[in-house]
Amino acid sequence: MLRVLAVVAMLLTSFSHGADEFALRDQVYDFLKANVMKRPLVRQSTGTNADKTLEFEFERTLIHTDLVKTERGLTFNQIMNIKQRNYDLDKDGKRTAAPAKVEDRMLVAEFALIQMRSAPLLLGSQVIPANSWGDSTGSSLALRATMEQGALKIVSKSPDFADFFGAGGTSKPGISGSEAIYNLGSDGKLIMSETTTSTFVDAETMKPVSDPKVSTFESKQP
Questions:
Q1: Sign of the torsion formed by the C-alpha atoms of 134, 136, 141 and 147
Q2: Cα(219)–Cα(40) distance, rounded to whole angstroms?
Q3: Which of 143, 148, 173, 178 has the fewest other C-beta atoms within 10 Å?
Q4: What is the pLDDT of residue 20?
Q5: What is the phi-psi region of residue 188: left when phi exceeds 0, alpha when psi lies from -120 to 50, beta otherwise?
Q6: How much is the pLDDT for 3?
Q7: Which long-range contacts (CB under 8 A, 24 or more apart) does 148-152 make?
Q8: pTM of whole model > 0.85?
Q9: CA–CA separation, 202 and 196 (whole Å)
Q10: Kindly report the CA angle at 137 between 56 and 59, in degrees rounded to 5?
Q11: Strand 73-88 relative to strand 54-69: parallel, antiparallel, unpaired?
């Protein structure tokens, strides 16, 4: 009888541990499902690139879809509709006479995250399978996600350099990182607060060739 009770206790402990193992994944999934999915987020902002040779006017409508729970993680998509105008700047930071460069685009970003066993984090990646601006095959971001004080935090960073907008319609190698915090406002509407850091780099050495550009933005549900 004692042996049977011991086996039952071991099984109950195992089941309990299995449930706890994916507690963070379940929290993130439940938060996304209840508060984020299919709620549009709109951001309007202006700013400059890292070397201050270009100014942009940026408007983005973002919506999250297709949330799926996997054995140890979860996946979802972001659909982005972006309207962007880029203006060349002179050495005094004023717009030149060159016409604005239109960089409107629509894209889909796929997020895949898995619950780590060694630490209370979800790790994963973001890829761009569809982009009206151009082929994004092979581009990706490394992700980590967690819950903090009832809010979802997703941190992303470049594993290598990417093509960034430069003056005169050019592209320059750069790296970026961001911290996005999803929360609900006092009116119950979704807010995403973003802090981004971008830097131009040497493509061969990956050493910075500009000072880091740190920016903060807020996207809100209308």
A1: positive
A2: 9
A3: 148
A4: 79
A5: left
A6: 52
A7: 148/181, 150/183, 151/181, 151/182, 151/183, 152/28, 152/31, 152/32, 152/36, 152/181, 152/182, 152/183
A8: yes
A9: 20
A10: 25
A11: antiparallel
